[in-house]
Amino acid sequence: MTILSSKLARTGIVYGFTVIALLPIGATVLLSLRPRPGTDAIGLGFSNFVHVFRETLVADWLINSLLVSLFTVVAAIIVAAPAGYVISRGRNKLVQGYSLLLFVVQSLPIITAVIPLFMLFARLGLADHLGALVIIYVAGSLSVATWMMAAYFDTIPAALEEAAWIDGCSVFGGFMRIVLRNSLPGVLSTAIFTFLLSWNDYLVAIVFLKTDTGFTLPIGLQSFFQQTSTDWGAVMAVSVVTMLPPVIIFSFLNRYFSVGGIGGSLAGQ
Amino acid sequence: MTSHADQPNVARTLTGQSGGEIPRDDWSAGRGRLFLLLVAPSVLLLVLLNAYPVFYAALQSVRNGTLISPGEFVGLSNFAKVLQSPDFWHSVRFTAIFTVSGVAGSWLIGMALALLLRAGVYGGGTVKVLLLLPWVVPIVVSSMAWNWLVATPDSPMPTLARMLGFETPLFLADPLLAAITVCVFKVWCSFPFMMLIMSAALSGIDRSVYEAASIDGATGWQRLRYITLPLTARTTYISWILMTIFCVNDFPTIYLLTAGGPIDATTSLIVLAYRLVFQNFQTGPGVAIALMMTAAMVVVSLILFRQIRKSGGPA
Fold this sequence. Notes:
Chain A has 269 residues and is an all-alpha fold. Chain A is 72% helix and 0% strand. Chain A has a single domain, classed as MetI-like (MetI-like fold, Orthogonal Bundle).
């Protein structure tokens, strides 16, 4: 324990661990930037990226992933914000029960829902469709998104709304103009959580998607890896394309990044 | 003690201990109708996409259908078949090992990092953000990187082991090594989450408590043992339950690295259910496993809810 009382020693330990922990990610970036075999280029460059955008469907997969995540985020906020408002402001036994139900649903193995939903969607001919993914991601992030919104609404004093009602504002108007408008950080946190959930999902996509032009990035990357497992430069280039959006969002917005909606809020109790 | 009253607090919201100051049961005519309207889409989604699938799964579990044919009613024979199969029990065992090592490993590393960062590290803020990366990077990408590191005899890790004088380890081809690799991979993915939760818990302990203990002559070890651990016990417990849920429900971490192999050494319950349904076309047994997992997870989540309710109250 005495060694740990020196700040320099602690820094050394933490930095050492960080370097080791980030090796896999660093290797991914480095391999993607190495020149392609067969060229006589030296140093680092983007030849792998040029190659994968020319030779594979990575551009399609990127667009699919962006579309799915965008629609998921917007739909999740549209569903979760009003529900969060009711949980925050209209609390009674029934609402409490609903809150608990959301909580239990959150922990269910997703496979339990995926198997029947796949059967149903397949029967309707909608299985191999990005829209199916959006619907399931919205349902899958519903619980956490709703509490995140409700927790944020709880911090907005109700007196603000009451003042607006006295001025002739409707209850719905109060929700939209007072509560929601003052909750942008909460909306942003919820959007980030939903984005990561839909962007990173593998299980739902692997079950539902069959046509390679309709893949999202994770499934595309996986299928590409299975076909060309020795072309590491190309595989890592697709990997970097896959991880860039979440990493960029995270680096700029990590202030709004809360642990799955639960963690940070348990602080200090 | 800093009050968190102005911070959003999911725990308190979830358990009804905080809320807008509007009179609680004010469901008077106009507002009640609006509330119902606002919550309707959420209820509809929950019923259609969560409750109905579970009900449908229950129907499938007592039939011998496949993905495309509904099959016939076979009573509880799917459950009997599953409970009698050695593969199932093997998966239960691996799921337990995967979960316990995932929870213990990620908590120990996460807690150690949280303590070091709390005690003070040069450039701590930046390092903390960097350390969260394994959790932010999509699992498919990390699995590629890990594959590159260990998969073949010529990969970096086996080469390193050879240089150190060991026999070339086959990280993904040897049953025991593959199981260890998958568990280590899970810890690598999960420690940032634990670090965040435990950092938040540690930041809630007032530094004056430590100062008082130091004046009384407490050693560093005693401070950890008698102050830090007891004061963060509830958060620790909640983080363990949460991570248990994450590990039991985790599909991609295992499937992407080993697909459950070699010779089923890393087949967890969820991988087994996936295989039965989508590769062997035995919907009944696969769904039966998913339902048993669901029942177990409902129990775990209710325990978690009670713990959060206790911790969400006035500290």
